[in-house]
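SAMPLE LOG
Freezer: B-3
Tube label: C17
Construct: single chain, 360 aa
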Amino acid sequence: MPKINSDTLWELASAEVRNRESGGGDEDGGGTVSERSVFLMGSKSGGKTSILLRCLDRDEPSKPTLALEYTFGRRARGHSTPKDIAHLWELGGGTSLSDLVQFPITPVSIRSLSVILILDLSKPNAMWGTMEKLLQTARAQLEKVSSQAQKAEKAKAGSKHQTSVRSGARVLPKDYPDRELISPFPVPLLIIGSKYDIFQEFDSDKRKLVSKTLRFVSHYYAASLIFTSIKSESLMSKTKSFFSHLAFGLDRGKTVSSDSTKPLIIPAGSDSFSQIGSPPTTDVDITSLHAKNPEDLWKKVYERVFPQESTNEQRELKDPAKDPQYSEPQIDAMRAQKDQELEQYKRNAAKSWKGLELET
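STRUCTURE (predicted):
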């Protein structure tokens, strides 16, 4: 067997990277592996892990997400072809760990990054605060790394000033509904309303307000929107189609449902402000709300009906060393012994300081 030259392999790898960066490669021939990144964030205990596992067809029990977790999915485009790869990041803790967005959102990942925001429909009093905090934090990080990437590309290109990275704003088709009135999220965004099985039992007026509010927000950010429940095979199948569209570039389907009495299914570009209408109010005079812009108006109307809980969530994540799923008997026993020794040292130190006479 001939000896493989590592320098040659390195040159081949370098050429492949340059080819990808220049947009080369056979996209449909199956010879090039496609790699995309998807970042999931959302409501605490909102079902992010369960939805992700179902979308990946993994039959395993979901566990609470510890801070920021990574996994991946693979899918073959055909027989005897390399499998495309989706790098999947999941943020736990609701808004309490939002500063961790800096790890999945990098100058490299934004080349093929999408974001999924999962909101717990069964807890409308925490929904707006969660949505606002996470989208603002993610957007700020996206704009920061996009700027860094553009500067790096310009420096590399010299006087040509050509860049292959995404700019701070997505470029939408010229016929996109309300194109001049919206503020597109920097990367493709999917908003998933989870626990629809509980939400459908809500009062019809409250369901209507939540549904129309999320329609407005999704359209304003040029995002797709779908309501789902892990207890519904039909809804999970449609959710998987939206997920696979972001993770592997597959067709997300053409189903559209904007009826507030049914689960919403609205692909980006399928809605408009004229179809959404104004905020549904019965006992609120909109002119008295003194809103700064349409988004602020919807927020004020929504919070009149659903006063928001504090978004200053404490970092109440359990200590991993005490979490049963990470138990290691020998290490845990040693840790317990060291904890006892530390406490004894603290007590002895406190006694010695109390008995010490300080000179004046």
